[in-house]
Amino acid sequence: MPVLEGISWSFDDADLLDRLETADEAMLDEIPFGIVTMTAEGVVTGYNAAESRLSGLSPARVIGRHFFSAVAPCTNNFMVAYRFETEPELDAVVDYVFTLKMQPKKVRLRLLKQPGRRMYLAVQECP
Amino acid sequence: MEELLQFLYLMPIGVVKFRLSGEVELMNPMASALLMPLAPTGSLRDIYTTLAPLAPDLKRRVQQFPEQAGIIIDQRQLQLQPPSGKPRTLSLTVNRVSDDVFMAVLKDITKLREQQRKLFADQQRFRAIFDNIRDYAIYTITLNGVIEEWNQSLQRYAGWMAADVEGQSMRTLFPPDDPELPRLDRFLSQAERTGSVEIEGPQRKRDGSRLWADTVITALPDESGSVRGFVVVSRDITERKRIEDDLKLLATSDPLTGADNRRQGQIRLAAEFARHDLEGHTFAVLMLDIDHFKSINDRLGHAAGDAVLRALVQTCKSTLRVVDAVVRWGGEEFLIVLPGTDAATAVVVAERLRAEIAAVRVSIPGGASAGLTVSIGVAEAAGEDTNELLRRADVALYAAKSGGRNRVVRAA
């Protein structure tokens, strides 16, 4: 296995989806912004350390649940869930407000979806 | 602690804790999801700013609230038009918990509002239909037939006012002598079992007169599916019934005398024979002929002959029972069918009829009057067919004629 230390992750990386696809759990936990990994149906299969810190929820609480209806119903709307459900291919950045730990915080969401692959929601806190 | 956090994430209503200054301290995800369309790029840190487009008076209402605690805004409906998608309706409640602690509760009640709007539109539509129909009565009754709701259309229908009939049994609407009336309870239980029942018959107007109505009683289930009452729709078919009756009379009677015509007589005979063959009912026929009718016509004219025929039928009808049939069988020949009557009784009836007719004086056009007599042959049905029965009656009639007329002869 090649040594992958020192590789930097960028929220706006054009190849983000490809890189997430090949990353293992430990690597995902290295990422400084939140990553939610989902099946094509929206069931959570991964919840990285940064996302866990942001929301206060441990991966065990959310993995296996449907993200838009049973983890973060506040994203179950036309801006996020609807786009994941209706667009076959998706790479979009959305300005959003998350109420992480009940404090409204401006965030940027990156919605990533390609046919035959898992779906990703990247969450970056705005300064 | 984590469980509590998850509980708050999943809460389906929006809750916001804020200060007198409008600064938001805590807010659950549903609150931010509901409010986000109001501030797509801005922050949600100030609740007055966020809600200003929908509730511009919020800041004033909160800051001028005189009490130390209490409800400031109670379930106010806010119309929200997101940048894309359908307009939504939010319900907003604002509560002062203590001096500098305020809670706002937001609920998406779009669906509820749509249901309410649809319900209201339906109500309006039904009311418009209810109030403007003329030949129909629509009302609701309880399981026991007590009238619950009456509408103004019924005033046009039969003259009844709500005060006359609400709380009364629907029997009020039927003539007291209607033979169907005792069966009303059975109609109701039938409607409860099968969903609906249709009845036709007379109904009583407020002024005491009658109308003829077609009535459909439909069971009205509640949410659980059990019947809690009925909807009754009655249609005034008086005119149709009158036309039907007229047509029936035209088709079945002799226009000159009002007696049944020959075709109707054959139908009556067939019905009596069926009862005779199947159930053993006895019946008798009288074959009746006016004596010297040709000479009445020749001496006094055809108008006099017609008057004699009419007088004869009138006398027959007033002497006989309602169930008996008087049939104009040929020119001056009449057949009388007597259900449930044996030969001996038929002879008595025939004799009485002969005497009544002999006593009649018929007014002739032109001022004169004339009398008439009849000869009658009597036969009781005895298992043979119609032709044979009528032949026996004819033979008896002939015997009465040749025996001197104005007499009754019983068939062998």
What does this structure look like?
The complex is a heterodimer of chains A (about 130) and B (about 400). Chain A is built from 6 helices and 5 strands, in the order ααββααααβββ. With about 130 residues, chain A is of the alpha+beta class. Chain A has a single domain, classed as 2-Layer Sandwich (Beta-Lactamase), CATH 3.30.450.20. Chain A has a 5-stranded antiparallel sheet with strand order 2-1-5-4-3. The longest helix of chain A is centred in the first third of the chain and has 7 residues, at about 15-20. The mean pLDDT of chain A is about 85. Chain B is α+β, with helices and mostly antiparallel strands and about 400 residues long. Chain B folds into 3 domains: about 1-110, Beta-Lactamase (2-Layer Sandwich); about 135-240, Beta-Lactamase (2-Layer Sandwich); about 255-410, Reverse transcriptase/Diguanylate cyclase domain (Alpha-Beta Plaits, 2-Layer Sandwich). Chain B has helices at about 1-10, 30-35, 45-50, 60-65, 110-130, 155-160, 160-165, 185-195, 240-250, 260-280, 295-300, 300-320, 345-360, 385-400, and strands spanning about 15-20, 25, 70-80, 90-100, 100-110, 135-140, 145-150, 195-205, 210-220, 225-235, 285-290, 325-330, 335-340, 360-365, 370, 375-380, 410. In chain B, the strands form 4 sheets. Chain B has a 5-stranded antiparallel sheet with strand order 2-1-5-4-3. In chain B, strands 7-6-10-9-8 form a 5-stranded antiparallel sheet, sandwiched between helices. In chain B, helix 11 (about 295-300) crosses helix 12 (about 300-320) and helix 12 packs across helix 13 (about 345-360). Chain B is rod-shaped and about 125 Å long. Classes of the chains: A alpha+beta (about 130), B alpha+beta (about 400).
